[in-house]
Amino acid sequence: METDVLAARVAEVRERIERAKERAGRTDPVTLVAVTKTHPPEVVRAAIAAGVADVGENRVQEMEEKVAEVGRGAVRWHLIGHLQRNKAAKALPLFDLLHSLDSLRLAEALSAAAAKAGTTVRALAQVNASGEETKGGFEPEELVDALGRIALLPGIEVAGLMTMAPFTDDEGAIRRAFRRTRELAEDAGRQLPGFRARHLSMGMSNDYEIAVEEGATLVRVGSSIFGERGA
């Protein structure tokens, strides 16, 4: 893919983000995480050349291969897909931010790996704000208790929440899920001393503008920039 084509698409997404911010009366920054899953390392390099500073990957093995090819420090790496507990130690040195902390057991595995490595892992707690059975993450009712338990673990810092919109074309339902996530973050901040959701990771190619209007600070956009997976 030509760098100028990528740069034009990235610019268009950023322009749409800014317009969504204006509609919401926001002036704080929103970070574009360009999702390069299934695309080869040369696409990541082209994205960097087009001005992308944050890249998202779904799987540890694919991220490991791209980090080796592109360079750990070439870009900020975001692991956005489900992380299996038995891969926590392997994944730890690969990413800057994990978007999918979806269970206490995973938090414990990450904490143990981070303590052993002498580092701190930064993560977002995934919440199932839509209530869909096919979605992972903490249920809204258990979120505050879970965040309180995770806060007691060494080597792990929860920097906010992540959610995925429901599988629907109903804009109202999508908006409600994003709004619910923002409200959950605000509620957790009131109940848990020391917890502040600096980041809300919400919105993908089809709904990132709605997410920005509802408070997203990180949007995960793939096909709007790179085309369909594997294309």
Describe the protein.
By secondary structure, this protein is an alpha/beta fold. Helices cover 43% and strands 16% of the residues. Strands 7-6-5-4-3-2-1-8 form an eight-stranded parallel sheet. Strand 4, helix 5 and strand 5 form a beta-alpha-beta unit. Helix 2 packs across helix 3. The longest helix has 22 residues. The radius of gyration is 17 Å and the shape is globular. The model has no long low-confidence stretch (mean pLDDT 95).
Quick summary:
Helices cover 43% and strands 16% of the residues. With 231 residues, the chain is α/β, with parallel strands linked by helices. The model has no long low-confidence stretch (mean pLDDT 95).
Instruction: Please state roughly what percent of the residues sit in beta strands, choosing from under 5%, 5-15%, 15-25%, 25-35%, 35-45% or over 45%.
Output: 15-25%
State the total count of DSSP E strands: 8
**Biggest sheet character:** 8 strands, parallel
Assembly annotation:
single chain
Helix count, DSSP H or I runs of 4 or more residues: 9
- Note poorly predicted spans: none
Mean pLDDT: 95
Which structural class is indicated by helix and strand composition? alpha/beta
Q: Which value, in Å, is the CA radius of gyration?
A: 17 Å
Topology order in helix (H) and strand (E) letters: HEHEHEHEHEHEHEHEH
Beginning-to-end CA distance, first to last residue: 10 Å
Identify the strand order in the major beta sheet: 7-6-5-4-3-2-1-8
- Net shape: globular
The helical percent reads: 40-55%
